[in-house]
Design a protein that fits this description.
This protein is mostly helical and 170 residues long. It has 2 domains: 32 residues, no CATH class; 111 residues, Up-down Bundle (AhpD-like). 61% of the residues lie in helices and 0% in strands. The protein contains 9 helices and no strands. Helix 4 packs parallel to helix 9. It is globular, with a radius of gyration of 16 Å.
């Protein structure tokens, strides 16, 4: 699995190498990753990328932000949109569009401790996303938060997935 991860990404799979110390955990995480939400079958690419980038930025995980920000172009985000998400420029989020704006707000709310989901945000989310889409978003955000805490807890640095010529990562 480590060989495959390195071959697919061209990067050192340090989180995977660390999980090798706990094989049962590695299997569980592997299943979670293999079944992670993907566009377009589970949710649109822009909403998923927005949630992943904001969750990574709020948690402050260098590896996660590096990896998730690298998907910006494939998800259809512009360089300006990527910059506002990476640097948590909340005042600019409404320019993303209703779904992405709400995905960003939801990702922020679920990535803070304690989690506080305002009734206003919950209502806005249910007006724009189906129940299934909300579960996909929540699962995606939780997945990023797992990796953020795992990677930061073990000192995993960024791996160079993202080309910072687009914008500097914090």
């Amino acid at each position: 699995m480590l060989w495959l991860a390195k071959r697919l990404t061209g990067k050192d799979p340090l989180p995977g190498r660390l999980l090798a110390w706990f094989p049962k955990g590695a299997v569980g995480v592997g299943v979670f990753e293999a079944l992670a939400a993907g566009a377009p079958t589970d949710l649109d690419a822009r909403s998923l990328a927005t949630a992943r980038i904001v969750s990574s930025a709020v948690a402050g995980c260098p590896f996660c932000l590096d990896m998730n920000a690298a998907t910006w172009k494939r998800a259809g985000l512009s360089p300006a949109e990527l910059t506002m998400l990476v640097h948590l420029r909340r005042a600019d989020w409404p320019t993303l569009g209703a779904r992405e704006h709400l995905a960003a707000r939801y990702a922020e709310a679920l990535s803070l401790t304690p989690v506080v989901l305002s009734p206003e945000l919950a209502h806005a989310l249910t007006a724009v996303f189906s129940p299934r889409e909300l579960v996909v978003l929540a699962t995606t955000i939780a997945q990023v938060n797992f990796w953020s805490r795992f990677n930061q807890g073990l000192g995993v640095p960024s791996a160079g997935f993202f080309d910072e010529s687009v914008c500097a990562l914090p």
